[in-house]
Design a protein that fits this description.
Blueprint (H helix, E strand, L loop, with lengths): L4 H4 L9 E2 L15 E3 L2 E8 L20 E5 L13 E3 L18 E10 L7 E6 L2 E2 L1 E6 L2 E6 L6 E4 L7 E10 L12 E3 L2 E2 L3 E6 L3 E11 L6 E10 L10 E8 L4 E9 L14 E9 L12 E8 L5 E9 L4 E4 L2 E4 L2 E2 L2 E5 L13 H13 L4 E3 L7 H10 L2 E5 L18 H15 L5 E5 L8 H13 L5 E2 L2 H4 L21 H12 L7 E6 L10 H8 L5 E6 L7 E4 L5 E4 L28 H8 L3 E6 L2 E6 L9 E9 L2 E8 L9 E4 L3 H5 L4 E10 L11 E11 L23 E3 L14 H6 L6 H7 L12 E9 L2 E10 L8 E8 L5 E8 L12 E8 L14 E4 L1 E5 L6 E6 L4 E6 L3 H6 L12 E9 L20 E12 L33
Parallel strand pairs: 26-27, 26-32, 27-28, 28-29, 29-30, 31-32
Antiparallel strand pairs: 1-10, 2-15, 3-4, 3-6, 5-13, 6-12, 7-11, 7-15, 8-14, 9-10, 9-12, 16-17, 17-20, 18-19, 18-21, 21-22, 23-24, 24-25, 33-34, 35-36, 36-39, 37-38, 37-40, 40-41, 42-45, 43-44, 44-53, 45-52, 46-47, 46-49, 48-51, 49-50, 50-53, 51-52
Helix pairs in contact: 2-3, 4-5
Bound molecules: beta-D-galactopyranose and magnesium ion (MG).
């Protein structure tokens, strides 16, 4: 039995939040030779339950042979063979009701050794466990030194008594499931282990234990003020008179902004009634500083020194601060007095190889990719992140909604009122605030996620409101059931719904306009990015930017949580729920990110970058009207260029002369001369804003904003000159057959969880309806009436299809044709929307133009429809080796098309990218109509205007083969390929036009 806690069994008791744990602090870790990292390879042993861990596992010598090696930080289910990752969304991974635990409850004992240097003698020694999932106990040299809960916050223990100079033996016992797991029921992998770093620190016997530095900005005067509270611990000694804390403020270049100032440390503990703690307090105002914002992340440093009565500095620390004010003024959320757009995303700590353990480099890579998509705000769904994350957000400039590690989703109307869970509720929120309060990036505190709304929330809200008056509260379930206008006011200052429809938020904005609602609406989750998704993102923002009270939201979510799995044949794949043998599970609902687990952007990220663009350009009154949507920075860092397309052909380009536009300002700019003069039926002007210099997130020339303006809207776009077209032989292309099926997207229905969709109202039922109608198996001509006339000539064939969609078949995936083509035609040039994949409700980022791409791999973890391009007037499939081209030219309106290596049936049949089988031929689809993608996996389905109603559809095109001209390169010039262009959020505008 484990010493001390073996009998107590605290893991089974929700009221026991910790034993011997020190209070949370904002003071950063000690530096230099006062700190010893224990990260690295540790010995590890797994037991079936905490009750079965023998005392000798944490004491004395390690029994030979029984230990394996693991990395710390790390999650053991992705490191050892005898336990597995387990994915569930709402349901718990085991059946027992709270607070009961399953009898099989894997418990890991971690052991390592470390040397305490002799110069640490006489110091206080602290052991810091960065994050242990779910609960942990620490033994040093066989002595129990403490127990802690909350998998996503650090725990610190005083180990001075147990430690000794020289070699020390450390054991950390981590229990996989605890009574607290019921509050850690976030949608994600259940992992376990020491997923954040472990270290030892030496602190002087009388030292600074905490440093709170609140930097405020008066938006009117522009002056800063600073409130510092430095907490001193006298340890075993009696508090003596004469200690002082000296505080100074300096800019990042080290230049002093406010010279040192001293404050006494109150010592008179016996001065009953008057004594208010050993806390030195200091206030400075009238500071001439530069404000912090996500656009201008200027930081300062507060240095604090503890000076003893003899005048010697006995301890010192420093924290970074940013001067800024966040407040809610009526229906507006303000930063430094200005209303900012929340271009947000939800982010989990996830890595495909290490699970919950992420490094500062991983986090920086996430943030750089986000900034390339113009994201400026992050909700730390659904728990406090690694401390390094907040340092990065301070420095790089992101607004953060910091969320407490509270989600009781499976029991959300139960535990929020359960007194046994009250203490842990409070601890989780209060410790988060205590840790993160100095960070300027944190602009709201979130009480957690999906935990109902009960007295435990109000207790936590009350604590935070008093402890930190400088930030508003955020909690979604407080408004979910009691209404957006008045619901949950005690627990949330913002109306932060998840997955509302566009009409719902518009209606709320109208109430704001009518004075009937007074809180800002910022969606805590929207535009669920599962698979081929993010339909109508731009439609959301049309309403957000034109309706009072609406300020943006956080897309769900940043990254797929695929975990790398080695298959028996030695290959690897990214796996989702159930693929490790975990049960019960929620399959691929864990893969719903804008980027893959390896941070490969999905095509929808181009739309995110466009919708979140910081500069917009409109065509107004015969000129350009440019608006800077930033609120604190000008546009001087960006250069604008223009490109003119006349009747579908690139005609001229140049740079646009625009003055530096003030934050929030707009300017009118005359049209470039060529554009103003041009006489053509269709004139399209594209304005692109690029960074002038290299930055932390992108090289110089990165496109941050683009708009295409139709100066004249006639629709003509002739293809390349006709040069010797011939009829298409059968081996080049089969005859097109009608096609109404697409490999269902995750938003059409969760194909791997059809039973769940049927039983629990999860996801969209569209797929069930389609399958019931036999769309995936029956030939299309049995579903819709199809007639075709073909007129063949020596130079090709003209196809004219007519489809009648009967009422009962309405809302089809698509209406069009499918044909297979010789796979050597693997490059595509077209005039239409591009260059990246786009769909009718996700194509505003896709400009009309002549684009080029290569046949693309399937971009989604679970294979599904992909690769469509809308608004196309002609398309050439090119064999670059031989130089011949298969040309498809519209004889009527525009069409949508895709050309991939996969038949829709093969995409639909495959459960994972690793199961996907290529077709022998290139599979080409041409559509007269294609359904939008919506976000039906979790949120509104496709809007009516992007669905396929009953009635007549026509598709007419010429198909011809253009052979290579002997001795002359037949194919158009080979522009930079765009197949990867959608990646990187917005780089798609660069050099993709085919001249
Ligand atoms: C929300 C929840 C998220 C995630 C999402 C669906 O209800 O807050 O954690 O489960 O739905 O992917
Ligand atoms: Mg949940």
């Amino acid at each position: 039995m484990l010493p001390i806690i073996g009998a107590l069994r605290p893991w089974a008791d929700p009221t026991m939040t910790s034993l011997l744990r020190l209070p949370m602090r904002a003071r950063p870790a000690a530096e230099g030779d006062r700190r010893l990292s224990l990260d690295g390879t540790w010995s590890f042993r797994l037991f079936p339950s905490p009750d079965q861990v023998p005392a000798d596992a944490v004491r004395g010598e390690r029994a030979p042979g029984q230990w394996q090696s693991v990395d710390v930080p790390g999650s053991w289910p992705v490191q050892v063979a005898d336990d597995i990752p387990h994915y569930t969304n709402i349901q718990m991974p085991f059946a027992e009701p709270p607070p009961r635990l399953p009898s099989r409850n894997p418990t890991g004992v971690y052991r390592t050794g470390f040397d305490v240097p002799s110069h640490w003698e006489g110091q206080r020694l602290l052991l810091h466990v960065g994050g242990a999932d779910s609960v942990h106990a620490v033994y040093l040299n066989g002595v129990f030194v403490g127990y802690g809960t909350d998998a996503r916050l650090g725990s610190e223990y005083d180990v001075t008594e147990a430690a000794r100079v020289g070699r020390n033996q450390l054991a950390v016992v981590v229990v996989r499931y605890s009574a607290h797991s019921f509050l850690e029921d976030q949608d994600g992998w259940w992992l376990a282990g020491l997923h954040r770093g472990v270290r030892v620190e030496a602190r002087p016997p009388v030292g600074l234990v905490d440093l709170d530095a609140r930097a405020d900005l008066d938006p009117r005067s522009g002056e800063g003020s600073l409130d510092v509270r430095a907490t001193v611990d006298f340890g075993e000694s009696t508090a003596a008179e004469g200690y002082r804390v000296r505080v100074s403020l300096s800019g990042r270049d080290g230049a002093g902004v406010a010279g040192p100032q001293d404050a006494p440390v109150p010592h008179a503990v016996n001065n009953t009634y008057e004594f208010s703690g050993h806390i030195a307090r200091l206030h400075r105002d009238g500071l001439r500083i530069l404000p912090w914002s996500a656009e201008t992340p200027t930081l300062y440093e507060v240095a604090a020194e503890l000076i003893d009565p003899a005048g010697d500095v006995v301890d010192a620390t420093r924290v970074r601060v940013g001067f800024r004010r966040v407040e809610i003024d009526g229906p507006d959320f303000l930063v430094n007095g200005r209303r900012v757009w929340i271009f947000g995303v939800n982010r989990h700590d996830h890595h495909p190889d290490t699970g919950a353990a992420v490094t500062a480099e991983d986090m920086r890579a996430d943030l750089a990719a986000m900034r390339r998509m113009n994201i400026n705000a992050i909700r730390t769904s659904h728990y406090p992140n690694d401390p390094a994350f907040y340092d990065l957000c301070d420095e790089l400039g992101f607004y953060v909604v910091d969320e407490a590690n509270i989600e009781s989703h499976a029991f959300n109307w139960y535990l929020c009122g359960d007194p046994r869970y009250r203490a842990t509720w409070l601890e989780r929120g209060a410790r988060m605030v205590a840790r993160d309060r100095n960070h300027p990036c944190v602009v709201q505190w979130s009480l957690g996620n999906e935990s109902g709304y009960g007295v435990n929330h109000d207790a936590l809200a009350g604590w935070i409101r008093r402890a930190d008056r400088s930030r508003p509260l955020h909690y979604e379930d407080a408004i979910r059931n009691s209404g957006w206008t008045d619901g949950g006011r005690h627990a949330t200052d913002v109306v932060c719904p998840m997955y509302p429809g566009i009409e719902e938020i518009r209606a709320y904005g109208e109430q704001v306009a009518a004075g009937a609602a007074d809180r800002p609406l910022i969606m805590c989750e929207y535009s669920h990015a599962m698979g081929n998704s993010n339909g109508s993102l731009a439609d959301y923002w049309d309403v957000i930017t034109s309706t009072p009270g609406l300020q943006g939201g956080f897309i769900w979510e940043w990254k797929d949580h695929g975990l790398r799995q080695r298959l028996p044949d030695g290959t690897t794949r990214l796996a989702y729920g159930g693929q490790f043998g975990d049960a019960p599970h929620d399959a691929n609902f864990v893969a719903d990110g804008l980027v893959s687990a390896d941070v490969e952007p999905h095509p929808g990220t181009a739309e995110v970058a466009w919708v979140y663009r910081p500069v917009t350009t409109e065509y107004v009154d015969g000129g350009l009207y440019v608006t800077n949507r930033r609120r604190f920075a000008g546009t001087g860092d960006l250069a604008a260029g223009w490109e003119l397309l006349l009747d579908g052909a690139p005609s001229a380009s140049g740079t646009l002369d625009v003055p530096d536009i003030a934050p929030g300002g707009s300017v009118a700019v005359p049209l470039p001369a060529d554009a103003a003069r041009a006489g053509a039926a269709q004139a399209l002007l594209t304005i692109t804003w690029r960074t002038r210099t290299e930055s932390w997130f992108a090289p110089a020339g990165h496109p941050v904003a683009w708009d295409q303006l139709a100066l004249r809207d006639g629709r003509t776009a002739p293809g390349p000159p006709v040069n010797g077209a011939v009829a298409v032989p059968g081996e080049t292309a089969d005859d097109p057959v009608p096609n109404v099926w697409r490999a269902a997207t995750d938003n059409d229905g969760l194909k791997l969880m059809e039973h769940i969709v049927r039983v629990r109202e999860m996801g969209s039922r569209t797929l069930i309806r389609w399958r019931d109608a036999g769309l995936d198996t029956r030939p299309a001509h049995e579903i819709v009436d199809h007639t075709v006339s073909v007129s063949r000539s020596e130079s090709g064939a003209d196809y004219r299809h007519r489809f009648e969609v009967p009422d009962e078949a309405a809302d089809l995936p698509r209406v069009g044709v499918l044909f297979r083509v010789d796979p050597r035609f693997d490059r595509f040039v077209w005039f239409g929307r591009g260059p990246h994949e786009n769909y009718p409700d996700r194509n505003r980022s896709a400009m009309l133009g002549r684009w080029s791409s290569h046949v693309e791999p399937s971009p989604y973890l679970v294979p599904q429809e992909f690769g469509l391009r809308t608004g196309t007037l002609w398309l050439e499939l090119i064999d670059d080796d031989r130089g011949d081209r298969l040309r498809l030219t519209s004889l009527g309106g525009d069409f949508c098309w895709s050309a991939t290596r996969y038949a829709p049936q093969a995409l639909f049949a495959a459960g994972n990218a690793s199961d996907l089988r290529e077709d022998g031929r290139l599979v080409v689809c041409l559509d007269a109509a294609h359904r939008g993608v919506g976000t039906g996996a979790c949120g509104p389905d496709v809007l009516p205007e992007y669905r396929i109603g009953p009635g007549r559809y026509e598709l007419a095109y010429r198909m011809e083969l253009v052979p290579a001209v002997q001795g002359v390169a037949g194919a158009p010039p080979h522009p930079q390929d765009s197949s990867r262009a959608a990646s990187g959020g917005g780089s798609q505008c660069k050099d993709r036009h085919v001249g």
